[in-house]
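user: Here is a favour to ask of a fellow structure person. I have my own habits and do not want them to colour yours. Could you put it straight underneath, so I can go through it closely?

assistant:
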Amino acid sequence: MSIPGLTALGDSFVEGRGDAAAGGGYRGWVPRLGGQLGLRPAAVRNFGVHGATTTVVVEQQLRRAVSARAALFGVVVGVNDLVSDFDANRFERNLTTIFATLRNSGATVFTASYPDIPARLPVPDNFRALLRARFDFANTVLADVTADTGTLLLDIATQPGWALPDVWTADGLHPSSLGHHLFAAGAAELIASRTATTVAA
């Protein structure tokens, strides 16, 4: 039986960048979501690391996350794949491994689609077009993998609110405090509406 709690895997979106904590470091959507679910802080674990790719999650975070035996897993990763050394086959293979492994643990798993980050990046138009093609491909793959594995998908790519400047920091990559708040609220609503699983501290 899973030990109740929330464990998050991924990159700086999960780490909490863009949402500074009062005592230093970052807060982010993970502890915000934990609070909305009524979890004690000790029941919330965050493995998010700045710069992490899907390969980093598979090789460095996945085994640790499964050993946490949480009732709920949240995963946001892939943007670093898309903006750097992109390999379509590796990307799809890694996403399949991540979500299938977590779902096979018996937990509820959720993730989010990739919003139009290329629109905010200071890059040449031809590279922006290339990035947008990659993001479109990634969202197609993500939709298929989540459907196949029974993973809940928070589709922020189609939500108009995520195109607003206030939701993002100046770098265009990381959510602002408002963005992290909106993500936590959206994830909580998705979990409540799509699953009967009770997550309790």
